[in-house]
Amino acid sequence: MFRTMLRTILLTLLPFGMPLAQETYPAKTVEVLSVFGAGGGTDILARVYAAEMSKLLGQSFVVINREGAAGSIGFAVLAAAKPDGYTVSFAPATPLVNSPHVIKNLSYGFDSIVPVCGVFDNVFAVVVMPSSPYKTLKDLLADAKAKPGQLSYGNAGLGSIPHLSMAALTRAAGVSMIPIAYRGDSGVLPQVMSGTLSVGIIAVSSLLGRDVRVLAVFNDHRDQAYPDAPAVTELGFPKIPPGLNGVFVPKGLPKPVFDTLERACKHVTNQPNFISAAKKLNQTVEFFSGAEYAKILKADYDFKGQLMKDIGFGQQ
Hints:
The protein has eleven helices and eleven strands. The protein is an alpha/beta fold and 316 residues long. The protein has two domains: 29-121 and 243-310, Bordetella uptake gene, domain 1 (D-Maltodextrin-Binding Protein, domain 2), CATH 3.40.190.150; 124-235, Periplasmic binding protein-like II (D-Maltodextrin-Binding Protein, domain 2). The strands form three sheets. Strands 2-1-3-10-4-11 form a six-stranded mixed β-sheet. Strand 6, helix 7 and strand 7 (178-181) form a beta-alpha-beta unit. Helix 2 crosses helix 9 and helix 2 packs antiparallel against helix 10.
């Protein structure tokens, strides 16, 4: 009787519909989906992010690799997950802004997944092995012009930033090269270094410490790690927006959980361990709130749709 009376009194003191107690998030292990193979730059930072989140929030954040199809396999898993905050993804936005334009009958759409925060941009480069006959990007394009449709380049998946960047460049140069898709940089890089692939389009973050020659970077300025390599815009080619990287969740996440993840993300991007890891990978950390990042991604989504029409690539 006493407990019943106490509960009645407490309910009258609480705002209508508010439970007596809410589970503190997170109350169990959180899975962090990494949508490309282990060992690449984004995957490395995903693991640092997970470690820092574990320390901050007191529960394990465990990285799970779900690579394939330019990241869309991992995002399909994310979109299908229960929107409770226990499945998130630290990943490029490629599967969100590119894949819906590329893959017919994709199991998710642009509005199926929500950005929690933006963290850093990932710049890509045209890369060959040190003994390659291609000393410059001009050499490569001249050979491609002399051998139409015979040269190929490795990329992280059809519809990925590396694929689209090189497709736009070759179109602007009036040459034809064959894209060969791999599961992330960790699949492309060994093939380039061994000479199996003549050319790879690989994230600068995956190249540090590797014995490769960088012919150009897909940006509007030179990269500090490879100052001798020109930006494609220096050579008269269009800039393609780099890989936009952040944290993503399924649509429908409760606002308190979303807010916790967003605040935690901002905290992590200010931690020395995360900043140091990003610097070692030649990445500059820049935090964007979920709302800010959503606007950036919508603009990129629209841009990529138009780009694919321009280069004649789209849903398959």
